[in-house]
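Morning!

This is the sequence you dropped in the shared folder:
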Amino acid sequence: MKKIIPLLLLTLLYSCEDSSYREYRGNAPVYMTYEEFRQPITTESVRDLENPGKIYFKDNFIFIIEEFRGIHIYDNANPSSPQKISFVKVPGIADMVISGNILYADSFMDLVVLDVQNPDNIQEKGRLKDIFPYVTPPLADSKLPAGYVDREKGVVASWEVKTIKERVYDQPVIYPVAGVRLDGSFYSALANYSSNASSGVSSGGVGIGGSMARFGLKDNILYLLDNSTLHLLDITTKTNPSEMFNMSAGWGIETMFITGKNMFMGTTTGMRIFDISNPVSPVLKSTYNHVRSCDPVIVDDTLAFVTLRSGTGCGGNVNSLDVVNIKNVSAPSLVTSYSMTNPHGLGKDGNLLFICDGSAGLKIYDASNPRTVSANLKYAYPAINANDVIPVGDLLIMIADEGLYQYDYSDPGSIKLLSTILVTKTR
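The structure's back. Tokens below.
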């Protein structure tokens, strides 16, 4: 008796023959299952700084992101001798912000809520799942292609260089661009510095982030950016944030700076200004356009300072500092532009303007006259690959490829290096 093969099975067999395999040397994804990745956040013993990312400051504590791995916490009561406290393992972290003693951080596609009041024993208090797009870490070897990512297997914790054999179908398969979010995005009042001994992170106030921040706070609203979307969360109950709604904020959004009733977004094509006098209802006031480039922004009174740099996934070949008049936020206008080497993050305190000019190092200018900034360079530290800064009460905290640097600028005529925390290896 003949066996009859169902039509569905024939279709499946035929479909399998419509594919082939290819072999190549590349970056193979190393997965962490969703169950493993969503285990409660743990506090570990201190470890060396290896691949520093963004920085944050609150109550004499410095928080440094170890990109995609976790957060280093240092007691900075004595900036001349910062002390390692702990390391918090947060898989997939890139950004953070602190309100009171609660720290909010991204962990791959989730938002985690951590109680950091006792920096020796950080506790996870909550988690919002799948609030962000799927994200992958930087490749192990950027000169080699990335293998296909199967999201069903979990998150990509790292990459391994090896010979990859994978099936190629007639239909195109989407490969992720390593190091960026799959949706295309790339990877504040000042508190006076106090030399008193630190007793823990207080339950009041907010911390201070650098100019590369993508998270921000206004009253009881937490703002989160992912390339084109602004997420608004209600943190009235700090340990139980609730997502209110999302809104389109434009395309290529990179950074967020909040001051007073306005939010300034740095994008790959310009600066966008939103009125957040009603924190739950951001209103776009205007857009200042510039050539395509990466674009952090800070604001001081009626002026915005915007750095544009090339050599990144943002595109463009311009390296400059733009000074923009924002006295009328509905009609920002360029005051002047200065050529730079490859500017990254920046900060300002009084008349001092601090610019991380990439491989050209840290530069400190007298910006009392915005039209003559480049002619008033006061200090330059060229042997550092500078990334971002936080000026706080005469203390400058700077993160670079080489590590953390702290400067005393209480006397602008004699700025002094106080301490360094160097990485164990250069990126």
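Headline: The chain is about 5% helix and 50% strand.

More detail when I'm at my desk.
O.
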